[in-house]
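Before relying on records like the one below, remember that each one covers exactly one chain. Contacts with other chains, cofactors or solvent are not represented anywhere in the record.
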Amino acid sequence: MDFFYLGILGFLLILAIFDLSVGVANDAVNFLSPAVGAKAARFKVILLVAAVGIFIGASTSSGMMDIARHGILQPEFYSFADVMCIFLSVSATDVILLDIFNTLGMPTSTTVSMVFGLLGGSSALALMNIFQTGQSYSDLINTDKALTVIIGIFLSVAIAFVVGLVVMWITRLIFTFQYKKHLRWTIALYGGASISIIFYFLVTKGLGNSPMVQGSGFGHFVNEHPMQILIYSFIGFTILVELLHLLHINIFKIIVLFGTFSLAMAFAGNDLVNFIGVPLAGLESFLDFTANGGGATAATYKMTALDGPSTLPGVSWFLIGAGMIMTIAIWTSKKAQQVVQNTINLASQSETEEVFSSSKVARRTVRGVLNFNKSITKHIPLSVKRWLNFRFDTEKSDAEPGVAFDQVRASVNLVLSGFLITVGTAWQLPLSTTYVAFMVAMGSSLADRAWGRETAVYRITGVITVIGGWFITAGAAFIMAFIIASLNHLGGFVAMLGIIALIAFTLINNNRRFKKKQAQSENVDTLFREMVACRDKKEVWNMLCLHISQTQVRILNAARTALTGIAEGLMTDNIRILRTTASELSDEKDYWKRYRRKEILGMRKIDALLAVEKNTWFHLGANSMTQILYGLKRMFEPVVEHVDNNFNPLPAVFVREFRPIIQQADAFLLSIQTAIESGNYANSDEILVQGNALKSEISKLRHNLQDRIQKEDSNLKVALLYLSTLQETQEIISHARHLLRADKRFMD
C-alpha cells in the first residue's frame, strides 16, 4: 500500500512540473503583454527580463501557503487516504483546466482553479464523512475562504477596469499620442511616481514575503515603515529620472522593463503555491504517515500534521527547481505567446485580426454606449470637444511602427497592476494578478479610444468571453475535482490509475490540437501584422497584393480538393471521403471569413485614389471566392445526405460522363491558381476560353440528362442529384472565370 501511495505521490510531483509549465503559459499575460505590445525591447530581451524575475521570485518565495494545507479543508477530520484522493483530484483538475485555457489562448486564474478545486475535492469527501459520522459541512470545510475569493473576483474585475480607464484617460490627456513633445515638465514626476510604485510593489509584494527577508532588519523596516519607503523612493527616483531624461534616455522603456521584472518576480513568488502547494502538501502528508502512522492504515490515520505550520525539509531546493522549470517554460512555451498575443489584439490601438466574433450582448453594449455618448457630448462646448479630440489624435503618434500600443500605455498598465495588487494585499483582498493585469489593459485601451466602431463589438465579445471563462473556471474546477475525488474514493487504486491515464490522454490531445491550430495560423498572419503596422502606402499596397494572392491560392487549392472529394465520394459511394471533405470545407470557410476582413482593412490603408480605382475589382474577386465556397457547400449537402442514407449509388453511365468533367474542372482551377500564384496573366484569355468550353460541355450533359429524365424510366432521385451536381460544377467554373478577370484587373 505504501508503494502505491508513493507512486501517486510521484505522479503528483510530475503533475506539479506540468502545472508549473502551463501555469506560466497562462500567467505570462500578466507581465509580458505591456512590454511585448509596446515593443519596449526585442522579444528575447523581454523574455530574459521576465525569466530572471521569475527565477528570483520563485527561489525567494515562502513556498507554502496555508490555503493548500488547511485553508479549505479541516485536515484533522480527513484521513491520509482522503487527502491523497483530494490532492490528486485538485492537481488533475488544475493541469487539465489550465491546459485547455492555454490551448484556447485565454488567460484564467490559477488561484481560482486551485481554491475551487480544493473546495470541490474536499466537499466530495466531506459529504461521505457526513453520511458516516453525521458531522456538519461547516466543521469539515472552510467556506469563508472560497467566499472571499469569489468577492475578490468581482472586485478585481470592476476596480481594475475603472481605475485603468480613468488613469489612462488622464495620462493621455497630459502626454497625448505625441508624447515626446510633452516630456520636459512632466516626465520627472511621472517617471518618479511610476518607478517608485513599482519599486514599492517589488519590495513589499515581491521580497516582503520571502523567508530570506522576513525576520531580518530589512524585513522589519519594510513592514514597519512602508510610507517612508514610498516617499524616499519617490524623491530619489524623481531626481534620477530627470537626470536620465537630460541624457536622452528613454524613461518609458525603463519603466516598462522594470515593471515587467517586478510583476514577473511577484507572480513567481506569490502564485507559486498555486502550482506546487498541493503536491508539496501531499509529500508532507506522506512523510508524516510513514513516520508516525504506526499500526494505523491510510484510511484511519488523521492528517492533523497539516493543521500546523509546514515542517517539510528541503523546501528551498524545491523552490529553486520550480524556478528553473518556470524559467524554461516562459522561454519556450508557444502557448504563452498565444495567450499574450490574444490579449494584445484585444488592446491594440489599430485595427488588427479579431480573434473573437460579434455577439448580441456586445452589439447592444456598443449601441447603448454610443447613444449615451451622443446624449452627453451634445452638452459639451464645441471648443472643449475640439481640444479633447486634439489631445487624443492618433494620426501623428510617436509610437514606433508595428507596435500594438505605445510605451505610455504600457507603463500605465504595469504601474497600475503593481499598485492595485499592492493595495489589495494591504487590505487583505485576494485580487488575482491575472484579473488585475487583464482588466487594467482593457480599461486603458478603452480610454485610449482603441475600441473604434469597427472593432468594439469584437473586442467587447472577447472581454466578455475571457471574463466568462474566469467564472467557468471556478465552476468547472469545483465540479471536476468533486467528481474525480469521488471516483478516487469509491474506486480506489483502479480509479486513480484511470484518472492518471485520462490526464495523460487529455494533455497529449490538447498539445496535438494546439500544434495543428498553430500550424494553420502562422503564415499569412505575419504579413497582415506588418501590413497593418506599415505607414508607407506604397509598401502597404505591395503587401496587400501578396496577401490577397496567397489567400486566393490557398482557397483555390482547397476548392480543388473539395470538388474532387465531393465528386469522388459520390461516384464511389464513399462516406468517409465526404466526411473528410466536410471538415476541410468548414475550415476553409472560417479561414476565408477571417482573411477577407483582413484584406478589407488593408484596402483602407492604401492610397485613396488607388483604392477608388481598385475597389470594384477587389470586391468582385472576393465575391467570386465566396460564391465558389457557397457552390461547393450547395453541391456537398445533397451528396452527403444521399450517400450517408445509403441510397442507390450513381449509375456507371453517369460516372463515365462525370469523371472527365471533374478532371477538366480541376485542371481549369489549377490553371487559375498557377496564374494568380505566379502573377503572370499572359495566358488568361486562353484559360477563360478553356473555362467557357468546359461550361458548354457541362450544359450538353445537363440537357441530355434532362431528356433522359423525361424519356427513361430511371431512378429519379439519383438523376436529380446528378443534375444538381452538374449545375453547381458549372456555377463554380463560372465564378472562377470571374475571379481570374477581376484578379487580373486588380493586379494590373
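The mean pLDDT is 81.
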